[in-house]
Amino acid sequence: MATIDADRLRQLFAGLGELLAEPTTLCLIGSAPAIASGQTDRQTADIDIWHAQSKYDAGDLEQACQGLGVLYDPRGELDPDAIYLQIVRPGLVQLPPDFDVESLGRYGQLDIVMPAPEIIVAAKLVRATAVDILDAVWWVRHRNLEAGQIEESVESLPEGRSRETASENLPLLRLTVERNGR
Q1: How does pLDDT run across 70-119, given as a tens digit for each residue?
Q2: Based on the domain organization, do 106 and 122 belong to the same domain?
Q3: Residues 11 and 26 in one domain
């Protein structure tokens, strides 16, 4: 199974930045922001891009991905060795309709940004798989996030059910952070 670690992620960004014909901004969500920010024990096969906060020409981006051997927004069954860039729109994933972004770096024609970590944590609390909780704990520790910041971000989620689910999972996050030492 293909995986992307921090070094491979930077190589992909540099390659895309060289191949893109025009300035592009991609807003990372999922596990890629943490990997790019130094979460060394995390790897992924995909790079999730939040469409609403990204600025790109789809044809240009698809062509650059093809030049690197990376799949662009695939649908259907995937080869387990495939590395891909997934365009994510509101649906299963819920993020506030408008949020500030943080820069993760510039690579030629490519700017990489991410939501504030507390927004990432709020989104991970909606799904709350074991990996999501571990990622959320990493962000709390790495960025010294306070409960109030996360609660505020949970309240900014656009869908009532998502806010409710994330709020219900806040105690699990607190317990895990406390149990593992902040």
Answers
A1: 999 999 888 888 899 999 998 878 899 889 899 999 999 999 999 999 99
A2: no
A3: yes
DSSP-assigned states of every residue in 78-114: --TT--EEEEE-SSSS---SS--EEEEEEETTEEEEE
Asked if 123 and 109 sit in the same domain, the reply is: no
3-class state of residue 176 by DSSP: helix
Q: 82-85 long-range CB contacts below 8 Å, 24 or more apart?
A: 82/2, 82/45, 83/2, 83/4, 83/12, 83/45, 83/46, 83/47, 84/45, 84/46, 84/47, 85/46, 85/47, 85/49, 85/61
Q: Are residues 122 and 97 in the same domain?
A: no
Q: Which of 168, 16, 64 is nearest to 32 (CA)?
A: 16
The CA distance from 39 to 60, in Å, is 30
Question: Do 42 and 92 share a domain, yes or no?
Answer: yes
